[in-house]
Each structure stands twice: as structure tokens, then as C-alpha cells.
Amino acid sequence: MKSWMKSAAAGVMAAALLGCGHKEQAAPPASSGGAQAEIPGGNVILIGHVAPLSGSDAHLGKDNENGARLAADEINAAGGVRLGDKIYRVEILGEDDKADPREGTLAAQKLIDAGVVAVVGHLNSGSSIPASKIYSDAGVAQISPSTTAAKYTEQGFKTTFRVVANDNQQGAALASYAITGFKAKSVAIIDDRTAYGQGLADVIEHSLKDHGVSVVAREYTDNKTSDFNAILTKIRAREPDVIIFGGMDATAGPMAKQMRQLGIKAPLLAGDGSCSPEFVKLAGDGADVLTCSRAGEAVEKLPKGAQFMAKYKAKFGSEVQIYAPYSYDAVYVVVDAIHRAGSLDRTAVTNAVAATDYDGLTGHIGFDAKGDIKNGAISMYHVQDGQLTYLSTTR
Amino acid sequence: MGSLDTFLQQVFNGLVLGSLYALIALGYTMVYGIVNLINFAHGDVLMVGALTALSAIAAAQGFAPGIPGWGLMLIGMFAAVPVCVLLSLLIERVAYRPLRHAPRLAPLITAIGVSILLQTLAMSVWGRNPRTFPQLLPSEPIVLGPATATVTKLLVIVLSAVIMVALLILVQRTRLGRAMRATAENARVASLMGVNPNAVIAATFAIGAALAAVAGVMYAALYSVAHFYMGFIPGLKAFTAAVLGGIGNIPGAMIGGILLGLIEALGAGYIDQLSNGVFGSNYQDVFAFIVLCAVLILRPSGLLGERVADRA
Description:
The complex is a heterodimer. By secondary structure, chain A is an alpha/beta fold. In chain A, 43% of the residues lie in helices and 20% in strands.
């Protein structure tokens, strides 16, 4: 941090000395903020990022955005992006969609109007899906680091990509874990009625029913409720072997706590949205019931994983929640595509993204015809002694 | 687990939720009884109470670590109550008193404005992210015959009951209570009898705010979260409870609150069986509001009636 401040200050001073009497010309462009003075001129590549930065998913949104910013800072520190004889600085333009589908479409339009080359995001499936139409119309590539709902890439848009596995795969993995890991004969399923939570819960339900597991209760809540005692009491009476939840950690945490307070002993099985350190914090002493999946390879297992987590912690002072490594890679995928396209033209970049063949932090990244990642991974975790602990990976 | 046990557990769940609704509903109903104003900022006073307690507890933990959970809970309450009382008095003086003789719509709109103002202020003071409210009391499940409880849940029920009895005694047996009832009946005549209506109205707001502060701390302790928009839903539910019981009527708010809690818990628990699987727990909230509509159609003045002689 300090070294770039020095160099930035030196750059500004040098510019001021050289530009005596021509201050307008010499002043650095407003958008650069003076942070990356080593890259001359005002050549900027704008990459949009959308995630909730307020509300109950804000910590996850900040996590994704931090991952993207970390990648941009590294790229700039390594000299930026060279296209022809010009050098560009990568800048992340972050928008807050409040995890709300309406806000998501507004954010998408705003980024397109601001001239972004591509977008990394959105976080929530419910926000990504309606926004993908807007990106498709504008020809802007959208690479989501965390949208898992199957529908996202099934709309036939050429601009829609994701660097994580989808919920068909994740739901099947969770269902298979319920059967083989927990030997479940009966389950109760709860979802939060969002595109993500409900979609994932539906996939799990179908998969379990196909394997002859009985679903003794299918309950609903929403992502603003804090009281689950009524539905949990009902579930307790049906005595399921496993309780499955489709939704985010801000809902799952208090739910796990209330499960314990009602004396429910069944384990809680949940998807990636609940698979975060924040869950452990919110669930308190009820946290150890959780087993959960993430729609990608486990960071701690990756060759550069430990290094990434240390860098992240040093820069932002907090732990990686879930998908920061994936937003980090998504920015690199965009920059890689720009290199191969040789221009900042949106269509050329989108075509280059579709042809991605890139070895990132999270593994090898390439997209199939729909925009889903090829050979996606699902990693399983559980909470042990108040720590989210890696179990296994399936592909 | 027998179906009777499940039923009794749902009744217990409903009682916990209903006690909180009742505490909050009292604030709505007392203010309405005296100045005919729906104080929509009431839910946000609750939110300020919860967040103030959170800050006070954090400060106390930092200042003197090792205070037991009970002590911290008391510190939280003792911080939240005066802050909420002062805040409510300020709101009454600045936003409502100048409009006391204005058309009834004006203070109603002002109340909504105050609500938004409080949320925005709280967002800038405490941030926009939900904060984890510390687990102060033991969270071990306590098995009470058919139902499973925790210390926090029992505290909610006991504290609410004690406060409600104390409030009834205050209104029925003390000078202030008599002044409140007189002002509710006719403020002008009461002032001729030597009652200062401004003081009585301020006292009513203060009592309502104190109840909201207690409810806010209990709500945050029960669900372990506090955030700037946490007052909206309980505020809306408590307003419903007050209307259900008959707005302006103190016993009505208590009964309405507990009834609404029971309806919600039993509705979520049994709606799919009652409707033969057509409706599920996704209709939990709808169920509560259907009951409200039914009550209002059949008894427009609420269960216990709006205008009773001892309303306050």
C-alpha cells in the first residue's frame, strides 16, 4: 500500500512540476484516483461488478467484490493490460443490487450505460437471471462467480457465463450425500422462496424422490423472516432423518440455532448460500449441525488457495466467505478474453470469453455451449468445533 | 412425538411471539387512545432500543469483561429504555404536538416520515448490515413437559406478563392512570379538572416507548440479530394486533397480540392439514391477515371494541 502511495505522490509531484502553467493537462484523470500512477494516461478498462452490498447478504456481496478488486489490483500492479501500443488500467465498477431482482436490472442498465466491457456478477440467482436479458440485449458478457440456479444459463443467451457449477449438479450432490452420507430414509425440506433457494430445493426433492427417500415435510419461509419455530416444530413432529434448506446463511444461521433450541437432533444439509463462516457466527452454538456444499473446488485444496486466502486477509482484514476466489478468477477470465480479442469491443470480448481456456486459481476454466463451466466441481463441507471444514469433492 | 405435544409446542411458540406483539401493540393502542394517532414510528423506536442495547452491551463487555449474561442483559435494557423514552418524547414534542389540532391525516403522514427518518439515522449510526446480538442467556433447550423452551423464551413470556399487569395497575389504580383515562375521554374537560394534558400525553408516549425498548431488546435476544429495518415487521404485526383487539383498548392490545402470535404459529403448523395440502407454510403471513380481515368485517371495532370507558 505504502509504496504505491509514494509512487503516486511522486507521479503527481512530477506532473505538477512538468506541467507548470498547464495544470488542466497535467492533472491525473478523476477516475484514476491517483492509485496506479505507474500506468500512464487515462486508459481504463471498466469491468462491472454487481452484488448486494446492503441487507442480509451484504457480507457475501462484499466478499465477491473484494475478490474482483484483488484481481484488478494485481493486474494493474503487474503493469495493466497492453493492447497494441496502449496500456490500460483495469477498474472495477461496483454496484449494489440489494439482492433484489428489480435493483439488479437497474444496476445492469447503469453499468452498460457507464461503458463496461464485461460484468462479473451478480451474486444471487434471483438478481442474475432477470439482468442476463439486459446484458444479452447490450451484448455485454456476464460472468457470475456465484449464480447457481440452473435457469440462468438455460435462457439461450450468448452472453451468459458462470465459473461455478449449477444447481442441477449441486442438488444431485446434496441428495446423494443425504442418501449415502446420512443414510436418510426421510427428509424435511425448507426453502426461502427465492429463485436460488426454491430452485435448489426442487432439484434435491426430485432427486431424493427418485431414490425412494420420502419427503415428510416441504416448508417455506422467506429471506426476511427471523422466526422459524412454527415450521421447525411441525418438522420435529414428523421426525425426519435430515433437514434440508435452500437459502442463504442469514436465514440458515438463526434457523440452526432455533433447531437446537427446540431440541431437534437431525442434521441440517444446505447449499452454497449457507456454506459460509458467517453461518457459523449467526448459528452460534447450533452451528455444528450443518453439512453444506459449494459449487466449486475447495479453496483450501487448491495449489494457490492458501496463498490467496493470506493475500485476501492481509488486504481486507477478513476471512474469505464463499466465492471471492471465483470473482477473482472471473476478472482474470475477462482480462484473458480481452487479450485474445485484442480489443475492447463488447462482441469480440464476449466471443473470446466463450472460447476461454484458462488455468485459474480455482482450476481450469472453460465454458460449454450454454455458458456453464466445463467439468464443474461440488465440494462438501461440515462444521466441526465451530469451523467450516472441508470433506470431499465430486465432479 | 405425539400430535398433542406438537400442538402444545406450537401454542408455546405462539405465546412467545404473541407476548412480544402484545408489548409492542400496547404502545400503539395507548397513544391512539389518548391522541387518536397511529404512531407508525413506534416499530422504529423498538429498533433503536435493540441497537442501543447492542452498543451498550458491546461497550460494557469491552470496559469490564466477565460480566455475566444476566448483567449484560440488564445493562442493555437500562440503556435502551431511557434512550427510547427520550427519543419518543422528542418525537412527540417536535413532530406530533404542533399537529395536535390539525386534520388527522397530517400527523399520520408525519408519523410515517418520522419512521423513515429513524431508519435512515439508524442506518448511518449502526451501519446497513445485520449485527449479531450476543447470546447472553443460556441457549440450552429446557424440556417443560410437552414443550421445549429456552431461558430467553421463558423470560419473554414472564417479563411481558409482569409488565402488562403493572401497566393495568398503573392505568386503573394510580393518579397518573386516572389522568390518562380522563384525558382519553375528553382532554378539554380533563384540563378543567386540573389535569395537564400535555404532561399526560408525554407520559403516555414515554410508557409506550419504554415497552417498545424492552420488546426490542427481547426480540433481538430471541433471534440473535439486530438491524436498522428490524422494527418494520414487528411494528406492522403489532399494529395488526392492536386493531384486532380494538385499537385504543389496553386489554384488547394484550389479547390481540397473544391471539395473533397463536394464529401465526398454529396457522404455519396446521394450515396444510386444514386445507388438505392446498396451502402450505408459505401462506403463514397471509393467514394472519385473513383473520384480521374477518375480524374487521364482522366486528369493525375489534374484538374488545374501540371505545370503552376505561380506554387509555
